[in-house]
Design goal:
It is a single chain. With 385 residues, the protein is of the alpha+beta class. It has a domain of 194 residues: Ribosomal Protein S5, domain 2 (2-Layer Sandwich). 42% of the residues lie in helices and 24% in strands. The chain is built from 11 helices and 12 strands. The strands form 2 sheets. Strands 1, 2, 3, 4, 5, 6, 7 and 12 form an 8-stranded mixed sheet that branches. Helix 3 crosses helix 4. Bound molecules: alpha-D-galactopyranose. The site of alpha-D-galactopyranose has 12 residues, from helix 5.
Length: 385
């Protein structure tokens, strides 16, 4: 991360114009993983860590982009009749431009210079931060108004249809709608949401396992397919269901015999996780942080055992956390197969927690975890100051 002044100066040198700055945050999900693509519930918070884009309109139809993190300037034509992904980071930018245009936005050509302090490949949604910052930069440069929910959907479409990752709506939505000191309870079907204040007595601590297992994308799409299979089989017995969101634990128990064992466990994770999210949001609103912590722990166990998206490094981190005084709960966060855990820790225990978890993780794995005490930040916007 290079700082705003440097980003602006580099832009002037590189592109010879005066930029505006746009920012979109990464996210940490407190509870509700692998539920968004089943029309379920999630409870993420936006991070202060963000992607920053310096941007200025161009008089032609070119989109030029460069990252301060390396690589040459890439260039695309907004009128390309057959835009194709290159299988690198520019796909997120290019994909958002394509989807915004398909949604009817009259974009202008633009130069973009990109910087980010969202760790890449750590499950903190660096790609959603890039997509949403791009959306703000492209709409802003063209002088067009921004509808945050519509932009979140465009970002998701870019990832689904251009990048080829069948993600849900959570990451783009929280990057657009996050609010400092709050988590956000989102109904991924209606897109209704409610901000939930995070108790001042606790901190959210993110532990980056530094593990990143390569098969994550393929496994993600497979999990999604398992959920769809479960719905197809259950629909014969539960007419009217459209997604696992419509299935209760009682329904699932009653029709367990209709599902292969693996499909049943995948479905049980999603159905039980939806229930945990709603209970967790209510607990947080009532200041019942102990209950919130218990639900986080149950969520981790379900992701580990039923959904099988955790990995040894994440399990080590979650387990170590539970042995430290002042920890209310701990779980993997995001897609899994590496990345981070999030722990809810009593404010006065944070320092001790950071030391103990770093030492314990290094002893168990030989890896140095990166630890981040997070203060939930605001959603995307134009940077004015
Ligand atoms: C990734 C996806 C999200 C969500 C999470 C798991 O971050 O982008 O849509 O499915 O995994 O909760």
């Amino acid at each position: 991360m290079h700082g705003r002044t440097e980003l602006t100066e580099r832009f002037r040198r590189e592109f010879g114009a005066e930029p505006r700055l746009y920012r979109a945050p990464g996210r940490v999900n407190l509870i509700g993983d692998h539920t968004d693509y089943s029309d379920g519930f999630v409870l993420p918070a936006a991070l202060e860590q963000s992607t920053w884009i310096a941007a200025a309109a161009r008089p032609d139809r070119r989109l030029r982009m460069r990252s301060l993190h390396g690589g040459p300037t890439a260039e695309f034509d907004l009128d390309d009749p057959a835009p194709a992904p290159r299988h690198d980071w520019t796909d997120y930018v290019h994909g958002v431009a394509v989807m915004l245009q398909r949604a009817g936005h009259a974009l202008a050509g633009a130069d973009l210079l990109i910087d980010s302090d969202v760790p890449i490949g750590a499950g903190l949604s660096s790609s959603a931060a890039l997509e949403i910052a791009t959306g703000f930069a492209l709409l802003g440069s063209a002088g067009l108004p921004i509808d945050r929910t519509a932009l979140a959907l465009c970002g998701q479409r870019a990832e689904n249809e251009f990048v080829g990752m069948l993600c849900g709506i959570m990451d783009q939505f929280i990057s657009c709608h996050g609010s400092s000191a709050h988590a956000l309870l989102l109904d991924c079907r209606s897109l209704d949401f409610r901000l939930v204040p995070i108790a001042a007595s606790v901190r959210l601590v993110i532990c980056n396992s530094m593990a990143h297992h390569q098969h994550a994308g393929g496994e993600y799409n497979l999990r999604r397919a398992e959920c769809e299979r479960g719905v197809a089989l259950l629909a014969a017995r539960l007419p009217g269901i459209r997604a696992l969101r419509d299935v209760s634990m009682a329904d699932l128990a009653a029709h367990a015999a209709a599902l292969p064992e693996l499909t049943f466990r995948r479905c049980r994770h999603v159905v039980s996780e939806n229930d945990r999210v709603l209970r967790a949001a209510a607990a947080l609103e009532a200041g019942e942080v102990e209950e919130f912590g218990r639900l986080m722990n149950a969520s981790h166990a379900s992701l580990r055992d039923d959904y099988e998206v955790s990995c040894r490094e994440l399990d080590v981190l979650a387990e170590l956390a539970l042995g430290i005084d002042g920890v209310l709960g701990s779980r993997m966060t995001g897609g899994g197969f590496g990345g981070c855990t999030v722990s809810m820790v009593r404010a006065e225990a944070v320092e001790r927690f950071c030391e103990a978890i770093a030492a314990g993780y290094a002893a168990a794995t030989g890896i140095e975890a990166k630890i981040l005490v997070c203060s939930p930040g605001d959603g995307a916007g134009v940077v004015t100051a």
